[in-house]
Amino acid sequence: MGIIERKEREREEMRRLVLDAALRLFLENGFEKVSIRNIADAIEYSPATIYLYFKDKNELLFALHQQGFMKMVADFQPILHLEKPFDKLMAMGQAYIRFAVENPQLFDLMFIMTAPMDKLDTEQWVEGDQAFGLLERVVTECMDAGIFERQSVQVVAMMIWSSIHGYTALFLRKRLGMIPECDRHQVMEAAFSLFCDTLLRGLRPENA
Amino acid sequence: MGIIERKEREREEMRRLVLDAALRLFLENGFEKVSIRNIADAIEYSPATIYLYFKDKNELLFALHQQGFMKMVADFQPILHLEKPFDKLMAMGQAYIRFAVENPQLFDLMFIMTAPMDKLDTEQWVEGDQAFGLLERVVTECMDAGIFERQSVQVVAMMIWSSIHGYTALFLRKRLGMIPECDRHQVMEAAFSLFCDTLLRGLRPENA
DNA sequence: TTGTTTTCTGAACAGTGTTCAGTATGTTTG
DNA sequence: CAAACATACTGAACACTGTTCAGAAAACAA
User: Fold this and answer.
1) pLDDT score of A4 more than 80
2) Sign of torsion, CA A109 A113 A117 A122?
3) Taking the model in full, what pTM does it have?
């Protein structure tokens, strides 16, 4: 009786249909301007149907947030094959920023919007955990290579992630109005590069 | 003819009445759950009346965002009288984080939400400019005191602000799920303190 | 073909931001 | 003082939103 398996498959296809349409609309029009009714129209179903496959809008957003993480992890993959640990670290920072600039809506969903996070609350955030794990691994490599002084990997990774995230969050939410439009890109790059230098100098072992 | 002046004053009082009620409701119930109608009910006016004093909801949010900056600048005032420049810098960082934790709604409005920012767009963001100026001044003092190597004040200030902002933004938007609840506070503090040390070591003049 | 289960939908509910004609109030002028 | 004007306010409506649910339609089982 493969019939229940086919049903399961059809169910998954329907979820995909909804998610693909939703993502397309979100990327086209931004989040504020896309409603359940819009998505339903796009796939030619009734709005009520969507609620047969997603508990509510937040669950739909959370599914897209997961998709965003899959894309991000895929984007990061090539970096992990670089040789020098510190180059890896810098490349990851740049990739993070680039991901945010090129996929602002996804990034928003992944790291800024509250909505998709409301459903899990105190529960473990596996997507974030996985991505953070990547960073921790590279930090560990930097320590193993003697580039960073040995100390809590978690704390160092946290500091680095926060710093990179800060730039991107402020940029995406248009909080860089104090820097003239024309200089902005330059200042951002300079600040990133300064951060890398500062890390290198500030975290290196004392006897180096 | 002080009559038009009185009208002007009454107009300002009405704006205050709306803003005070709005802020109270926002702090009580969060942003998502407060509507123009709620605010109108609270001050016992019709919803339409609010539109005589604010162009739309975004303008109201922007006014509250300004109020948030006034509070923040006031909170920062005592710090500016500290003696050692680097102590000032650290105190500012801590004050920024503390402000965010103690006034999450205001902070949201000031630095995260897109809504209040939509109205000015490319225009100058005077509130942010002013606050950023405070930071730039302290960074300059650190350079003058020989604690930091001389370089672009703007870039250094940018780097520091971004880093501190990163922590708070991730924390407020519940993106620290990979750190167990119990350790979180500890890790955050450790990361902040590590950042201060890293700055000190990474930005000090070469010959020191 | 009948009965049962699953999948879907129209219509409604309670809410949102916003507009506007019309009323009520306050101010100025003849 | 009364008429004319200006300002302040509101009820009702518009076009939306997320969400629910009784009942129609389709798919499956006997």
Assistant:
1) no
2) positive
3) 0.94
| Chain B residues touching A188 at Cβ < 8 A | 158
Closest CA to B63 of B77, B48, B76, B53: B53
Quick one: pLDDT band at residue A121, thresholds 50, 70, 90? low
Mean pLDDT of A171-187: 93
Closest Cα of chain A to B134: distance in Å?
12
Report how many Cβ contacts below 8 Å link chain A to chain B: 147
Per-residue pLDDT at A117: 92
Nearest alpha carbon to residue A166 among B119, B179, B161? B161
Q: Cβ contacts of residue A174 below 8 Å, gap of 6+?
A: B114, B117, B121
Which ranges of chain B have pLDDT less than 70? 1-3, 121-123, 207-208
Whether residue A207 has pLDDT greater than 70: no
Q: Distance from residue B45 (CA) to nucleotide C21 (C1'), in Å?
A: 19
Residue B162 is nearest to which of A122, A167, A178, comparing CB atoms? Answer: A167
**Partner residue opposite A187 with nearest CB, options B128, B158, B203:** B158
pLDDT digits (tens, 9 = 90+) for B38-69: 999 999 999 999 999 999 999 999 999 999 99
* pLDDT tens digits for range A55-89: 999 999 999 999 999 999 999 999 999 999 999 99
Q: Which of A151, A194, A203 sits opposite B155 (nearest CB)?
A: A194
Does the distance separating the beta carbons of A154 and B179 come in below 8 Å?
A: yes
Q: What is the dihedral of CA A43, A45, A46, A51, to 10 degrees?
A: -80
Q: Is the CB of A13 under 7 A from strand C?
A: no
CA dihedral of B105, B106, B111, B116, whole degrees rounded to 10: 90
User: Tokens representing B112?
Assistant: 């995260």
Of A200 and B8, more confident: A200
Which residues in window 45-64 of A are less than 7 A from strand C by Cβ? 45-49, 52
Q: How far is the CA of A172 from the C1' of C9 (A)?
A: 40
- Shortest CA gap A32–chain B (Å): 10
Residue nearest to nucleotide D17 (CA to C1'): A35
